[in-house]
Amino acid sequence: MKTENEGRAGLLYGIGAYAMWGLVPLFWPLLKPAGAIEILAHRMVWSLAFVGLALIVLRRWGWIRELVRSPRKLGLITLAATVITVNWGLYIWSVNTGHVVEASLGYFINPLVTIALGVLVLQERLRPAQWAAVGIGFAAVLVLAVGYGQPPWISLVLAFSFALYGLVKKKVNIGGLESLAAETAVQFLPALAYLVWLGGQGTLAFGSHGAGHTALLVATGLVTAIPLVCFGAAAIRVPLSTLGLLQYLAPTFQFLLGVLYFHEAMPPERWAGFSLVWLALTILTWDALRTNRRSRAAIAAATAAGAAEAAGPIETAGPIGTAGPAEAAEVTGPAGAAPTAGR
Prior knowledge:
Blueprint: H1 2-23, H2 36-58, H3 62-68, H4 71-96, H5 100-120, H6 128-148, H7 153-172, H8 176-201, H9 210-218, H10 220-235, H11 240-246, H12 249-261, H13 268-311, H14 319-331
Helix pairs in contact: 1-10, 1-12, 2-4, 2-8, 2-10, 4-7, 4-8, 5-6, 5-7, 5-12, 5-13, 6-13, 13-14
């Protein structure tokens, strides 16, 4: 019962995290007349404040000593902070200038870009279905490029920056909350310096448009930290394959907001491009689920065979002999899930 409740809670945490990421386009326009770069700077400054407070409450500081002693990890954290700065800044600008649909496309094609980076950088081998999905995704970009009259650069920059960010985080290999604290620590001084410079120029929006607007700018830290905390809670309670499926909630919500709430145009060529992307993701998801089932079945068979071999002559001894399959099923729970890139 406890495991079932934990799984249900993890699913709710995961849905909550991706739903918040999907609905965040509703938040950034509330921060106008602040410009995208000022909003980005506030997000960096206040994220560090809230994440630092969370680490104080949790008393999780041991990772800092290990990080400081590793120049390689410090370099990777700096690279991650740089890449996510580009991603955050472009996303905020896209939403506040009427490109929500194009931004959502970036997160739809992100899994395909992640796979491509795995082949190019990590020299991973793809299954035929994965090759097919990547090929269809490439065709979708060509269709959209023809429709736009230029490559969908917003989508491509968002997809590649987030995929590269995920690759760097994989190499750093520290917790999500700790990683965000380290990254925002790198971002903090440049962001604070920019806000001070804006104040000196007399163009700082912070504090100039009422207490409500000021509170919203401060809340950029919470908007960054809360979904990450929910995602971390989900990651330890549900299989990664489940998180891999949930990740499509965020761009789906963003797309629906762009079309239904912000009333962005969807000409036929854009529908064609998105349809190809959705086809590629369907193939990718089907292949991941099939591979996951096969992996779990293989692990279950191997575990059962090992238990039968160890049982030897007492294999048919009533309750002892029937305990094996149940124990094997427990062993092949979340550990049997194929790892899927999360957000």
